[in-house]
Amino acid sequence: MSAALERLGRRFARFVTTSVVAWPGLWRLLRRPLLSQFQRLAPVWDQRRGPETLIPLGAALDRLDTPPQRIVDLGTGTGAAARVVARRFPEATVVGVDLAPRMVEEARALLPGDLAGRVRYEVGDASSLGVDPGAFDLVVLLNMIPFFEELTRVTAPGGTVIFAFSSGPETPIYVPTEKLRERLEPLGFAGFEEVAAGPGTAVLARRLEP
Ligand SMILES: C[S@@+](CC[C@H](N)C(=O)[O-])C[C@H]1O[C@@H](n2cnc3c(N)ncnc32)[C@H](O)[C@@H]1O
Predict the structure, then answer these.
(1) Spatial distance between the Cα atoms of 154 and 180, rounded to a whole number of angstroms
(2) CA 209 / ligand 1 centre spacing (Å)
(3) How far is ligand 1, taken at its centre, from the CA of residue 42, in Å?
(4) Is the CB of residue 143 below 6 angstroms from any atom belonging to ligand 1?
(5) Which of 8, 66, 89, 108 has the most CB within a 10 Å radius?
(6) Is the pTM of this model over 0.85?
(7) CB within 8 Å of 157: residues ≥ 6 apart
(8) Does residue 1 register a pLDDT over 90?
(9) Does the CB atom of residue 97 touch ligand 1 within 6 A?
(10) CA nearest 165: which of 125, 204, 191?
(11) Ligand 1 pocket, 38 CB below 6 A?
(12) What pLDDT does residue 82 have?
């Protein structure tokens, strides 16, 4: 892919993120072109991602008080974050969800046999997951657009959401901490923590018990 095309793709991802965070209803229009973009990127995605892209997520996981049992990685791509959390929490079951079937195929191919019993990858849309309310103790988004209503619905009371951005504010899919806070507080989140680690940043938010 040419450098110009790649720059355009990054700008488009930023445009979709900003638009959907401000007006979630726009997802209906932007879903299809974003899906095409990530379907195209799937075969090369994993080889472009170095270990440094996972550093902020690792630092955020260090801040968890109790090991989560049920974890979802939204916008899993080729599945790296799901594998990291599964290694970190050997008792947990993990599901990685992605809109792009080709990303899910790659993630499945990269899953080592010893994780196969408790990590699975599924095609799905993070704006409407079709799982029970409170299904997860930990919701992870690594470089992923947040759909606030749905991620609140699926986070168990007392559970945590981690938003990690591999290159901090330079990440194409990036949401500033103040914006995350502004959107999540009215939905019942508190205990925000911001972490800077390696080339990136992460934010933890805890869903209050009723
Ligand atoms: C920037 S990539 C990040 C992939 C992976 N988390 C990583 O950091 O390597 C964003 C991913 O989110 C997926 N995605 C975008 N919108 C989504 C949605 N509404 N539901 C599920 N996945 C979505 C894309 O298909 C893409 O694989």
Answers:
(1) 17
(2) 29
(3) 10
(4) yes
(5) 89
(6) yes
(7) 134, 207, 208, 209, 210
(8) no
(9) yes
(10) 204
(11) yes
(12) 98
**Mutate-to-test residue for ligand 1 from 48, 55, 98, highest number of ligand atoms within 8 A of CB:** 98
- Tell me how long the chain is: 210
**Averaged pLDDT, 171-177:** 98
Angle between helical axes of 27-45 and 101-110 (0-180°, round to 10)? 40
82 pocket-lining for ligand 1 (C-beta < 6 Å): no
**Does ligand 1 come within 6 angstroms of the Cβ of 205?**
no
Q: Is the pLDDT of residue 3 over 90?
A: no
How far is the C-alpha of 167 from the C-alpha of 174, rounded, in Å? 9
Token duo for residue 151: 């991620």
Distance of CA 204 to the CA centre of its chain: 12
- Listing DSSP states for 100-157 in one string gives -HHHHHHHHHH--GGGTTTEEEEE-BTTB--S-TT-EEEEEEES----HHHHHHHEEE
Ligand 1 centre distance from Cα of residue 10 (Å): 13
Q: Tell me, what's the pLDDT at 17?
A: 98
Model pLDDT for residues 17-56, shown as the tens digit of each residue: 999 999 999 999 999 999 999 999 999 999 999 999 999 9
Average pLDDT over residues 132-146: 98
Alpha carbon of residue 21 to chain centroid: 14
